[in-house]
Design a protein that fits this description.
By secondary structure, the chain is α+β, with helices and mostly antiparallel strands. Helices cover 57% and strands 17% of the residues.
Amino acid sequence: MHSKVLAKLLDVSEHYFPERRVFFSTQKGMRYLHVRTSTQILACLGAATFVIWTVISTALVCVDLLGANDFRQQAKQDAEFYHQELSTLKADRDAKTAQANGAQDTFGRVVDYADQVQAQLLETELQRQEMLSALRVLQEKLAAAAPPITPSADAATEQKTIEDKGVADLTPAPGIQSKAAVERLVAILEQTTAERDQVLAQTQDIISHTDELKLELQLTEEKNQRIFRQLEDALTISVQPLDKMFRTVGLNTETLLEYVRQGYSGLGGQFMPPTVSTRGEPLDANTLMMQRLLQQMDELNQYRIAAQKAPFAIPVISNYRYTSGFGKRWGRPHNGVDFAAPKGTSIHTTADGTVSFAGWEGGYGWLIKIRHAFGIETRYAHLSKIRVKKGQRVSRGDRIGDMGSSGNSTGTHLHYEVREGGKAVNPMRYIKAAKDVF
């Protein structure tokens, strides 16, 4: 059975791939090359394998390019959304802080007024007690005074004299004077009692309003705490990918941040932010939280500055084809990666830095070298045109040249290198580390 199948396969192979002779002319005469059926089959399989490999590689590169563009757009949209949310939360926090400060000031004024009213109420109560004591003493004296009036012998004579004169003695008797004084004291006591009741009612209203202010202040404090926690979580989530990105490429984050602090430490001017004085008192929870948030925001800004100074970007922004990687190639070391695109495609610097070389250099052809922070250097070779000059400061994303095929080159492409301390490293480490961050 197997022999029949094998014989059938050989017949089919010989039918489609018969043995051939390829004749060619030489100085010694006509010669021919005998091509067997197996050789033809192997050659066809090899060609088909090469074509399939080329198609699959091209498709993978296109898919990777489209995915990278989608990731960059999504990361950019997420960053913009985060900044908008952070600005909104910051404005809400400032408004609530101002509202809380206003409520606290109002509460302080209410407490001071309540103290004054309480002092007046205590003073009024003391006066009332003193007047009651005086009233009791006066009543005792009235009870002990006023002896019975005995008619004298001359009463009729005196009465007749008064009637003759037609004038009545209007001077009140001592008993009548005491009764008027008592009535006045009673009126004063009633007025004092009414004022006391009024002050008590006002005090109750103030206490009720104070309780409402305390509740409002407590609610404001709780809302501020929630806002602070959300801000702190957002800042933590933002810092972690940046920290991981730097550590992935082997950069020490503490050293990076210290470098940024030294280079960006200036302050002063007319609009200096005021310092908060605690007058020797311990800081409250809100102040501590605010200081911690400010420190985290400053740290995030330092990470952003440091990321601009390391080559985490791609030098070719437009469509390109990744043609060669880092490592050995054709038996020799290849110290960079190659990106192929049409001639004249714009080349952009991948980090902030200073141009240290711009000109022709042997096999590199037209070459640009840029010196960055942290001992990093990037190289852009085989250019067709250089758009910067030596000593020029550039920022990440600036156009520095055009793609070409100068020097030792088999076609139009960019040879891109990253060197740390003069030693070439794989640039894809930086590009892949920043893939999900920017």
